């Protein structure tokens, strides 16, 4: 169980708050984990993006989501993503990477990176993916100290609801419980936390029911994240392409008739044009400096001769 807190990122943070309160449907945010996934997701028409810890950890460190990725690694990745998209990004902040001072630091790092909100959970360190079994959580008092009054939950549903209610009273902007196990629990969760928006996390073949975006709206959720939308299909596609190259000697069929210029959709052509323009201007300035230098040189020679 965890909560989401908006952080001060001017227009994007304000925009996301307005969306949560004014949009009648559930806002949808797919998981992104690198520059390419951020570019692609930004062109589809989603409400926001979710920097998924599992995908990011695998992409950046090559390791499973077991607290191996650091706060600074997350912040640098987030900075690149925020630069790449026009959409608000909600970022995974794990357990805050330590105590109150560490949490304060990751908030500041994400703020400076351009992130609109963060998700902090109450697992003990080292944490693991919320969909895995065997998780342990902080005591109520420890968690309250960590997030300036935030109190997060245990595995038991009712205890989780109680702690979420306390977290919302303490200032959390959005309630998020990891993996309610049934439609009935989803309904109870939304009703119990109805004074603030509630977010739901949908993973393929996960512990939570496989809710569609329409079902999320019907159940009263104000936002939903689909963390695996990007990295699982990407992994499957890469497996197929690498295997084809190894077994068939070519990856042509897997590339779908696309060339490297397929990257044009992410601004490659625009950036190449910009580079060419800058080079042209540099050459023009260089020629102008040479012309001016030539005139000054002639004038200087005449001036020196006149003194003689």
What is the general shape? globular
Uncertain stretches of 5 or more adjacent residues: 142-154, 299-308
Oligomer: single chain
Count of runs of 4 or more consecutive helical residues: 11
Q: How many strand units?
A: 8
3D structure, described in words:
- It is built from eleven helices and eight strands.
- By secondary structure, the protein is α/β, with parallel strands linked by helices.
- Helix 4 (71-84) packs parallel to helix 5.
Which labels suit this protein?
308 residues; alpha/beta; 8-stranded mixed barrel; 11 helices; 11% strand; globular; disordered C terminus
Spell out the blueprint of helices and strands:
Layout: E1 2-6, H1 10-22, E2 27-32, H2 35-42, E3 49-51, H3 53-61, H4 71-84, E4 89-92, H5 100-113, E5 117-121, H6 140-146, H7 157-170, E6 174-176, H8 183-192, E7 198-201, H9 213-219, E8 223-226, H10 228-248, H11 268-307
Parallel strand pairs: 2-3, 2-8, 3-4, 4-5, 6-7, 7-8
Antiparallel strand pairs: 1-5, 1-6
Helix pairs in contact: 4-5
């Amino acid at each position: 169980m965890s909560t989401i807190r908006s952080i001060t990122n001017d227009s994007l943070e304000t925009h996301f708050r307005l969306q949560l309160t004014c949009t009648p449907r559930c806002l949808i945010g797919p998981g992104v984990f690198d520059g390419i996934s951020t570019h692609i997701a930004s062109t589809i028409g989603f409400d926001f993006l979710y920097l998924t810890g599992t995908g990011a950890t695998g992409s950046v460190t090559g390791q499973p989501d077991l607290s191996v990725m650091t706060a600074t690694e997350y912040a640098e990745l987030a900075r690149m993503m925020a630069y790449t998209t026009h959409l608000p990004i909600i970022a995974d902040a794990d357990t805050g990477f330590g105590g109150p001072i560490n949490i304060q630091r990751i908030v500041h790092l994400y703020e400076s990176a351009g992130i609109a909100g963060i998700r902090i959970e109450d697992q003990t360190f080292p944490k693991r993916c919320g969909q895995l079994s065997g998780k342990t959580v902080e005591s109520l008092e420890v968690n309250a100290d960590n997030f300036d009054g935030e109190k997060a939950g245990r595995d038991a549903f009712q205890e989780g609801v109680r702690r979420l209610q306390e977290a919302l009273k303490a200032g959390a902007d959005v309630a998020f419980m990891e993996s309610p196990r049934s439609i009935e629990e989803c309904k109870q969760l939304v009703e119990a936390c109805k004074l603030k928006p509630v977010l739901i996390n949908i993973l393929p073949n996960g512990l939570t029911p496989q809710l569609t975006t329409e079902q999320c709206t019907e159940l009263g959720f104000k936002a939903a994240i689909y963390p695996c939308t990007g990295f699982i299909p990407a992994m499957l596609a890469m497996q197929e392409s690498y295997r084809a190259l190894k077994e068939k000697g070519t990856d042509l069929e897997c590339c779908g008739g696309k060339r490297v210029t397929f990257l044009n959709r992410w601004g490659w052509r625009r950036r190449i044009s910009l580079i060419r323009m800058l080079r042209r201007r540099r050459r023009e300035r260089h020629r102008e400096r040479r012309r001016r230098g030539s005139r000054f040189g002639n004038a200087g020679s005449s001036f020196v001769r006149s003194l003689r």
